Amino acid sequence: MDNKKNEGEDENTSKTASSHLDHDGTDNEGVGSVGRQMSESSLSAAEEEEDEDSKLHLGPQYTIKEHLEKDKDDESLRKWKEQLLGSVDVTNIGETLDPEVRILSLSILSPGRPDIVLMVPENGNPKGIWFTLKEGSKYCLKFTFQVNNNIVSGLRYTNTVWKTGVKVDRGKEMLGTFSPQLEPYNHVMPEETTPSGMFARGSYSARTKFLDDDNKCYLEINYSFDIRKEWPAV
Question: Which of 146, 148, 113 is nearest to 131 (CA)?
Answer without folding.
Answer: 113
